[in-house]
What we know:
Layout: H1 8-15, E1 20-22, H2 23-37, H3 41-51, E2 66-68, H4 69-83
Antiparallel strand pairs: 1-2
Helix pairs in contact: 1-4, 2-4, 3-4
Amino acid sequence: MENQPITKEEAKKLMENPCLTRGEEVCGVALYVEEKYGKGSQEKMEAKLKEWGYPIIFQEIRFTDWHPEGLNALALLAAKEVFN
């Protein structure tokens, strides 16, 4: 199967998942990417999420707050698309 970028519709389907996760999970992806790819990498992921219709700023996410599990999946997919 070929790697194809996800669409806004696919992102919306992921966000419709009723499961929740802590902000720590969502930010964990961004923190790892920043450690591996350096300063500014989180902003690239944020730009991809904004493109899909989910503008977030990782620095503003509180680790103990609940967020849709789809956001965690989208963060992973954004990292995959941006950094391959």
